[in-house]
Amino acid sequence: MNIVIEHNPSSIKLAELGVVSWPKWSCQPGKYALVFEERETCYLVKGKVKVYQKGSSEFVEFGAGDLVIIPKGLSCTWDVSLFIDKHYKFDPPTSL
Predict the structure, then answer these.
(1) Residue 96: its pLDDT value, please?
(2) pLDDT digit string, tens, across residues 9-64
(3) Quick check: pTM over 0.85?
């Protein structure tokens, strides 16, 4: 699935990335079908989620304290078990 998870990154790394200045997104527990048009980097402040790639029963799980990189083009279902509160940023679109 190519989702990269870094558990408990240092506060120095988070500061260097400028995580607290990124927009925030939150959602209640439930299942959400998502398509990532651009690569997303996010830091989960709260919550827990299992991500299933479309058409697969395999999943990756991450939660509060994780820094996550989600690849461009991923079509998936987020199965949120605990309320999600995250900072996120998308890579700028690339021009041809």
Answers:
(1) 54
(2) 999 999 999 999 999 999 999 999 999 999 999 999 999 999 999 999 999 999 99
(3) yes
Q: Which two tokens stand for residue 88?
A: 């996120």
Partners of residue 79 on adjacent β-strands: 31, 50
d(CA 90, CA 39): 6
The fold of 4-10+25-90 is: Jelly Rolls (2.60.120)
d(CA 6, CA 41): 11
Residue positions counted in the chain: 96
Following DSSP, what letter does each residue of the chain receive, concatenated?
Answer: ---EEEES--HHHHHHHTGGGS-EEEE-SEEEEEE-SS-EEEEEEEEEEEEEETT-S-EEEEETTEEEEE-TT-EEEEEEEEEEEEEEEEPPPPP-
Q: Tell me: pLDDT of 93 over 80.
A: no
